[in-house]
Amino acid sequence: MPVVNHSRYCQLLDQAMSEGYALPAINVLETGTLNAAIEGLAKAKSDGIIQVSVAAGDHTSGALHDPVLGAISLAEHARRVAEQYPINIAIHTDHCPTTKVDSFLKPLIAETAKRRAAGLPNLFNSHMYDGSDLSMKENLAMALPLLKLCHENEIILEVEAGVVGGEEDGINNEDAPSEKLFTTPEDMVLVHETLGQIEDARFMLAATFGNVHGVYKPGHVKLKPAILREGQDALAAKHGEAARLWLVFHGGSGSSLEEIHESIDYGVVKLNIHTDTQYAFTRGVADHIMRRYDGVLKLDGEIGVKQDYLASTFLERGRESMIARVVEACHTLKSAGKTMR
User: Domain of 107: which CATH number?
Assistant: First the structure.
């Protein structure tokens, strides 16, 4: 099935919200992890979102260090692969900071506009602007014209209110003040009232409720999912039930099943998965190398075993391991078996 269009994407998010599950949004770094993400979603019969960060684009472009070129390459590969599977896939860019808006986000939106002018489908279905380095007022002042630009090209914009702690892809919030780790009901109302000025524009909100990027031992991360409920209730009380937002959960590693399900109950329709799937891929590769050490390396004058040291062999083990972790994530998010085929 081809990558979804704007209307279908909105339907996926609306259905997730109404039926109480979240779409897995899986960060990929190159074609191996991209293939594993789509294959895992298909195996679980789950729709999902493929995510490309600035760092992933940079990595994919090699020595060119051109995040836009790399992101375009990954998106085009995802489109071709997705056509072979009976699930719905959306393509998204993750965590574009304010400093990269002009050099990453806007060029990708321009690439989509160019495709649309040629009668081709959108390159990306959604983008994330991460203005967490700014005050809420400055953050939304940046987000508003971006939403207008996205809306003109049938792209959904994701914005962040507050700060997701920890570090990911070079964005380090490990020392963020505690008050910024929790979005307030007033913040959520302000997001709705500001971005809602653009009629019919669709957007997602990454509200923060103590979530932290990275992986930690159980009990380290102190989540407060009730913050999401309080914000949604404040929106409904002031602007009606239709004002409830599509919410995004970042930094879910180490969260309990109960916390994840509670956040879904309060409107989380997209949960980002990065650390766990990247570890699963590396674990599969490392397991192969450590079990076949003598074959992978040419030790003591020996010649090794070509089938052991072929990159295609150990990358295949990584892909298999990541597929299994994606399937697990789909069951955790209750999206397994719910594709809108």
Answer: 3.20.20.70
Neighbours of 79 (CB within 10 A): 17
In this structure, the number of other CB atoms found within 10 A of the CB of residue 19 comes to 10
pLDDT over threshold 50, residue 165: no
Mean pLDDT of 216-243: 86
Assess whether pLDDT exceeds 80 at residue 93. Answer: yes
Is 94 among the catalytic positions? yes
pLDDT higher than 60, residue 247: yes
**Model pTM score:** 0.93
- What token pair was written down for 182? 């929790």
Which DSSP letter does residue 337 get? T
To the nearest 10°, the Cα dihedral for 273, 159, 169, 138? -160
Within a 10 A sphere around the Cβ of 326, how many other Cβ atoms? Answer: 26
Q: Which amino acid is at 306?
A: K
Alpha helices in the chain (DSSP H): 6-19, 31-43, 54-60, 67-82, 106-117, 136-152, 185-195, 226-239, 257-265, 275-291, 293-296, 306-309, 311-332
User: Is residue 204 situated within a structural domain?
Assistant: yes
Q: Look-up: residue for tokens 């009668």?
A: 119
Q: What is the dihedral of CA 195, 198, 204, 205, to 10 degrees?
A: 0
Distance CA 75, CA 87 (A): 17
pLDDT at residue 322 tops 60: yes
Distances (CA, A) of 260 to 48, 72, 323: 17, 32, 21
Count up the domains in the chain and report the number.
1
Is residue 130 one of the residues assigned to a domain? yes
Residue 165 gets which letter from DSSP?
B
Domain with 24, as residue range(s), is: 6-332
Of 47, 58, 94, 130, the catalytic one is 94
User: What pLDDT sits at residue 63?
Assistant: 98
